UniProtKB/TrEMBL annotation:
Name of this chain's protein: Mediator of RNA polymerase II transcription subunit 21
SUPFAM superfamilies per record: Mediator hinge subcomplex-like (SSF140718)
Cellular component GO terms held in the UniProt record: mediator complex
Main localisation: nucleus
Purpose of the protein: Component of the Mediator complex, a coactivator involved in the regulated transcription of nearly all RNA polymerase II-dependent genes. Mediator functions as a bridge to convey information from gene-specific regulatory proteins to the basal RNA polymerase II transcription machinery. Mediator is recruited to promoters by direct interactions with regulatory proteins and serves as a scaffold for the assembly of a functional preinitiation complex with RNA polymerase II and the general transcription factors.
Keyword Transcription regulation part of the UniProt annotation: yes
Subcellular localization, as worded in the UniProt entry: Nucleus
Keyword Nucleus in record: yes
Pfam family, one: Med21
GO MF, any single term: transcription coregulator activity
UniProt keywords, alphabetically: Activator, Nucleus, Transcription, Transcription regulation
Source taxon at top rank: Eukaryota
An example Gene Ontology biological process: regulation of transcription by RNA polymerase II
Length: 80
């Protein structure tokens, strides 16, 4: 393998690591910040959601998905 192939492989590995990190952080953020929901009538009502927190939470997935799409596009570029 030449240097160019190794360089592309290294870049691909870096992008895969980036995607894994974004996914890990996204799942953690969603788990931590998602508003409570009532799962069943046998459970008590969850506490009301703060409107400001809900607005902030609504923006987070958009930002994280943007980062994920950028990383995926970079992988596609490297594969081409």
């Amino acid at each position: 393998m030449g240097n160019r192939e190794m360089d592309v492989i290294s870049q691909l590995q870096e992008q895969v690591n980036t995607i894994a990190s974004i996914a890990f952080n996204t799942f953690g953020t969603l788990q931590r910040d998602a508003p409570s929901v009532r799962l069943s009538a046998s459970y008590p009502e969850p506490p009301p959601n703060d409107a400001e927190d809900a607005a902030t939470f609504a923006e987070q997935p958009k930002l994280m998905s943007s980062d994920l799409v950028k990383a995926a596009k970079q992988v596609r570029y490297l594969l081409d």
